[in-house]
Each structure stands twice: as structure tokens, then as C-alpha cells.
Design goal:
CATH class of the largest domain: Alpha Beta
Shape: globular
Largest sheet: 7 strands, mixed
Number of strands: 17
Radius of gyration: 22 Å
Strand order of the largest sheet: 3-2-1-4-15-16-17
Strand content: 15-25%
Distance between the termini: 28 Å
Number of domains: 2
Order of helices and strands: EEEEEHEHEEHHEHEHHEHEHEHEHHEEE
Helix content: 25-40%
Length: about 400
Amino acid sequence: MAQQPVLQSETFQFNNGQWFNGKTFKRQIFYSVNGLLTKKRPAKIDRIVDLKNGYVIPPFADAHCHNFDGAWNINEQIEKYLRDGVFYAKVQTNSRKGANTVANRVNIPGSVDVSYAHGALTASYGHGVEVYEGLAVLRKPGASTPEEVQKIRASKVRENDAYYIIDTAQDVEQKWQKILDGKPDFLKIYLLTTEEFEQRRGRTDTVGDRGLDPALVPLIVKKAQTAGLRVSVHVDTAADYRVALKAGVNEIAHLPGYFVRLEDSSEKYKLTEKEAIETARRKIWVIPAPIAYGSWMEKAVREKTDEVLRHNLRLLRAAKARIAFGSDRYGNTPLDDVLYLSKLDVFTNLEMLKIWTEETPQTVFPNRRIGHLREGYEASFLVLSGNPIEDFEQVKNIQLRFKQGYSINLQ
């Protein structure tokens, strides 16, 4: 979605701030002129703001969510994101109709800036169908009984809105213009255990347990990139990851093994060093969304999942691959997910801070001057009461929020 024009804001002088420069914090004076940062003192200053020795960082971003596509709770979602300092969000599948109803509530200085997939590409009865048809006909994201499975399989309420069914190359050609007419900011596709694709495609008693035919992925990626659309892909297993890597996608929206059951082999989800190096070489973004944690999760499952997560993250870190943070938990910001990742002892506090404030915003809005506190960049930042390089938990202690030259005031 295009960023709406920023109305001219006041001119600010920010005193007594310790500004993050990508390595450490340095005491500096910055100004905000027409919503942009500058170190050059303007002729006129409307307001002087005392940052009270706070630690100034770029805003946070969420590279994987499914929020901001309905009016019923949009106020709550916006307030929660702004309170947690998350100014940018990438919606990795949504109802296009729902997003259109809240278009005037986002992508403005006082709200969250959002990019949308406007529907994902999947196979018949594939992943995404169970979520959006389940919500439409059962008021829940999925089925619990055989009868509910059949009810979801028969429903088409959200087709060509929250998802598109693609089973053949002919489907790609026939539906391509409809997909483009939806004006997505990027293209989202689903892969789901591709090593079992043929077996799962033949089942009639399930829904949501498959993704696209892996043979179609190179065609889809090529068409999308030719149309100027970056491609983000859901993956479950290492086999899915390899299909995405070979096809040249721009972004992998999960790390394989985000939920590893006790009966599963961990090797099914582990990347190789060669794959990590190739990911970095191709400059593909990878979004670990560590959904398998919390009090609801069996300890043994969480430990097994974390072992795979650490393995994959360490390989990607060593290869210097591009990492972005996201949640993939409806109604939540990525704050708890990022804090969880920080405790896995893979990244340093400095690396965590750079991923969340510098790297993640760039995959949400790759063409904007955000993610750094530099001359000519958007005047968007957070002021923390403590140093997050010394104590990463300080990311929770936000004292002040500025976005595009406007102060964000929360009750």
C-alpha cells in the first residue's frame, strides 16, 4: 500500500539524547525538518525536546503478521503496536476486502505503516484455506472434526480475496491478472511439506495440510519478479526451503522447524551450511517466527524445537544471511517473540537490536529511508530509558515515540 503524503510537521530540536549509530550510542543533537532527520540547524525551530539522556533507536518492525485487515479491532491493534514501538508491519496474508476497510487508518504518521500481501497463493484445500474459510463458516481458524473439514472444503467465501487456488500452470496464467488487480505490495505463496505433496494432494479428508505444487514455484516467482513484486514464501520443512531457495524467492517467512513434534525427526527441519551460505549469497531475507513457546507448550516439544531453531539460526548467522523478526501470532506484536529469541544465545544484544531496528524495517518497506538515524532519513525513533546493548530487556522501556516528525502520544 502506498504511503500517504506526510503533512508538514513542526520543526524540532532534540537535545540530550544518546543516538544509536549502528555500533554504539553517541550523544548528539538532531533536528526534525519536514518529517526528516538532519544535523543541520534550521533557521526556525518550533519546539525543543529534552530527551533526558535517553537511548534513541530506530522504531521496531514486524515482518510477519496477519493483522490490520478488519475494522472490528483495528484501534486495539494500532494502539498495541505503537505502544510496543512497532511502527512497521508486513501482513503475510490477509483479506484484501478487510484491508480496504481500514486503509484510511494505517500508513499515516499517527498510526502503523503496513504492507500487504492481499491474499496468498496455495493449492486446492491448501494451507490458508482452513484459516480463512474456517473463520468464515465456523468462526474459528480450522477444523476439529471430519464434518468441519468437509464444511471448510466446500466453502469458497474467501477465495480470490484472502487466497488464490493455483493447481496448474494454466491456473497461474488465468488468475494472474486478478492477482495483480488486487494491488499487493508483495506476493505470498505457501509451501508445506513438499516432499509429501503428491500424497497429500490426493487426500479428501483433510484441509490445510498442503501448499503449492513445488514444480510451479519457479514460474510464479519469475512472473512476480517480472511484475516488480518481491516473493515471500511460507515453508515448513528443509525440503520446502530448498524449493524456495532454488526458485530465487526474496523472503522466507518461517524458518523450517518452527514447531517440531516429538515424533518428528529433527533432521527433517535442519538446514545445511551450504544452504545457509546460498541464502546469504542470494540476499534472501529469513524471518524466524518462534511460535512454539509459552506456558501452553509441552516442555519436551519446546526444547526439541529450540534445538532445531538454534541450529538453523547459527548457520544463517555464520553465513551473514539477512534476518528479520516477526511474530505470526494473531493479535500480537513481535515483542515477546524477539525477547524469546534473545534468550537462545545465538545473537548478541547488539545483533538483536540491529536486526529488529535496521534490518526488519528494510524488508517491510525496502524503498523507504527508515531503519537508521541518519541525515535525510525519516524522523521516526524511540527513546528508551536504558541501554539495550547492555540489557536487551530495555526495549520494553519506551519513554518517547516519534514518527515522521510527529510525537506519538498514548494514554
